[in-house]
Amino acid sequence: MGDLKLIKGYNEIKLSGVEKFGDDFAKIKNIQINSEGELVLDFVKDNIDNRYYWGRRGPSVHLSYTLPEDKNFKWFYNEVTVPEGSDPIGSYFMANGFGEGYFGIQVNSDTERRILFSVWSPFKTDNPGEIPDAEKILVLKKGEDVYTGEFGNEGSGGQSFLKYPWKAGSTYSFLNSVAPDGKGNTIYTAYFLDPEVGEWTLIASFLRPKTNTWYKRPHSFLENFVPESGYMERSANYGNQWAADASGNWHELTKAKFTGDDIAKRGYRKDFEGGEEAGQFYLRNGGFFNGIIELNSMHQRKSNGVSPNVNFDKLP
């Protein structure tokens, strides 16, 4: 028995063992809270659409960058910094999203980290084995030691990743292109830059059939893909966003819309934030903190006016 003063939002209850006669102090099954006044608790109260699973993973949050509408854009450039201590297992810091896929860095285990680049097939299915040959994603080229294959469960398509020991606290650059090939297909290519290496690394280039598009919907997102890590906080800073049109001219992107997934929108988890801070955009989720940034809010960072130094003709 004890008295608690509850605050609006998440409240932490700590239990400390005093004496035990076996392996455990106790096996906690539930906690009963009695209130002298009205007490309203929000919680995940049903498993519609597998929300128990998604609730454990935690809310995913996104930044959608505002792109000028009067040009065809081929390239998108972004920089990502994961603060030290904000990179628990299961984190995906997606840097360069587009209408048909995504590109970023993951924490896969205590010993493995990846650079991941994927493109969805135009055939809608969660099972890659169901995709007809005419609608499969084709690998045109890939970098050294890069794995390429298929993925499923959240749509299906072509996947590539490079096992790479990226570090929290360092800033990494991401560059990718989307362009039609003039034959009813679209080609997607991704490059990664580690400042310690100083040169662009090719991840992969894919052909998506039955698609005729330029770069659309540049965005970033932050998610946790391991349910057991949903109680841990993670965050990332996104800075210096630029898009290059089909003629190679750079345009700085300084506005972004902050959004969330079903778990965030329904309020099943409230530990999420995103927006602008100290001249950069940021995303934050997990850890059961009380976020204060509203979904669907618009944010703007200060322009720095320095476009990326990229020689397109010399990319690997």
Care to describe what's here?
This protein is mainly β and 316 residues long. The protein has one domain (49-314). Helix content is 3%, strand content 39%. The protein contains 2 helices and 18 strands. It has helices at residues 51-57, 262-265; strands at residues 61-65, 73-81, 91-97, 101-107, 113-120, 138-142, 147-151, 157-163, 171-180, 186-193, 200-208, 219-224, 234-245, 250-252, 255-260, 272-277, 280-285, 297-300. It is globular and about 70 Å long. The N and C termini lie far apart (66 Å). It holds the Pfam family DUF3472. InterPro entries: DUF3472 (IPR021862).
Features:
DUF3472, 2 helices, mainly beta, 9-stranded antiparallel β-sheet
Oligomer: single chain
Given as residue ranges, the uncertain stretches (5+ residues, pLDDT < 50) are none
Shape: globular
- How much helical structure, as a percent, in the residues? under 10%
* Major sheet: 9 strands, antiparallel
Could you spell the SSE succession in H and E letters?
Answer: HEEEEEEEEEEEEEEEHEEE
- The counted number of beta strands is 18
Calculate Rg over CA atoms: 22 Å
Strand order of the largest sheet: 7-8-5-4-3-12-1-15-18
Mean pLDDT: 94
The N- to C-terminal Cα distance equals 66 Å
Q: Which range does the strand content fall in?
A: 35-45%
What structural category characterises the helix and strand content?
A: mainly beta
Q: Provide the number of structural domains.
A: 1
Treating each run of at least 4 consecutive H or I residues as one helix, how many helices? 2
Pfam families: DUF3472
